[in-house]
Design a protein that fits this description.
With 259 residues, the protein is of the alpha/beta class. Helices cover 42% and strands 14% of the residues. The protein is built from 7 helices and 7 strands. Strands 3-2-1-4-5-6-7 form a 7-stranded parallel beta sheet, with helices on both faces. The longest helix has 29 residues. The radius of gyration is 17 Å and the shape is globular. The model has no long low-confidence stretch (mean pLDDT 94).
Length: 259
């Protein structure tokens, strides 16, 4: 069965880089029209222009997901140019190099709050504003939060990151039960070790800031995942093929959490 999002209007935060770019590619391949929301506006606009030249419907705008005004603006622009949003993908996060990992005893209030503001509060705002719009337009939509295996397993030097991803579990489940009466489904995906420019040298960088290396796991499939392998699961959860799936976190980790 071919899974499609034909003519569906999709918003992807952080959709021009890393896992977000893999998600974007899969959504476009499935026939969706996509709005990219990204703080690094030029990267997003350049990516959108390239994809439009290939025949896809995709636009981009600035969005800091921790700022409610920016999130509202992205929905208003999407509605004006593409139509009401039917799928919201909360992907933007501080991860890899941008996370600035550090030992727990050296963690600061400022860094802690910054990570949670983007990774957890950003998904809360995105989910809430998307749901409000879906209800307004009578859309029985789908919301997908991009979490991490860090939701389940601690990572050395990443206290705020692991906390933010664990918090996504509660957000996803709570939103799922409260939005179910409106026909809105809310799910999450927990990627394992995915190869992106931000995470390409993650082990070496961890060693540089003093990680012990005792807690790195081997992925049983014996390779790193590709961003598109997350994108394919996003498309499934966003589509009618997953019409009875809500409140769930799908683990896509090559067996990373199996032992």
């Amino acid at each position: 069965m071919k899974i499609e999002l034909k003519n569906q209007v999709v918003v992807i935060t952080g959709g021009a880089t890393g896992i977000g770019l893999g998600i974007l590619s899969c959504c476009l391949e499935a026939g969706a029209a996509v709005m990219i929301g990204q703080r690094r506006t030029k990267i997003a606009e350049d990516q959108a222009a390239k994809l439009r030249a290939e025949g896809h419907t995709v636009i981009a705008t600035y969005c800091d997901v921790s700022n409610r005004g920016d999130v509202i603006n992205i929905f208003e622009k999407t509605e004006a140019e593409l139509g009401p949003v039917e799928v919201m993908i909360n992907n933007a996060a501080l991860t890899g190099n941008s996370l600035m990992a550090r030992p727990f005893l050296e963690e600061t209030d400022e860094h802690w709050c910054n990570v949670l503001d983007v990774n957890l509060t950003g998904s809360f705002i995105g989910t809430q504003e998307a749901a409000r719009r879906m209800i307004k337009y009578g859309v029985k939509g789908s919301i997908v939060n991009i979490s991490s295996v860090a939701q389940f397993a601690a990572q050395e030097g990443a206290a705020p990151y692991c906390s933010s991803k664990a918090g996504l579990d509660g957000l996803t489940k709570t939103a799922a039960i409260e939005l179910a009466p409106y026909g809105i489904r809310v799910n999450a995906i927990a990627p394992g070790d995915i190869l992106t420019p931000q995470s390409a040298e993650v082990r070496q960088e961890a060693n540089l800031w003093g990680a012990s290396g005792n807690y790195f796991r081997h992925t049983p499939l014996d390779r790193r995942g590709e961003p598109e392998e997350i994108g394919k699961v996003v498309v499934f959860l966003a589509s009618e093929a997953a019409s009875f799936v809500t409140g769930a976190t799908w683990i896509v980790d090559g067996g990373f959490l199996s032992y």
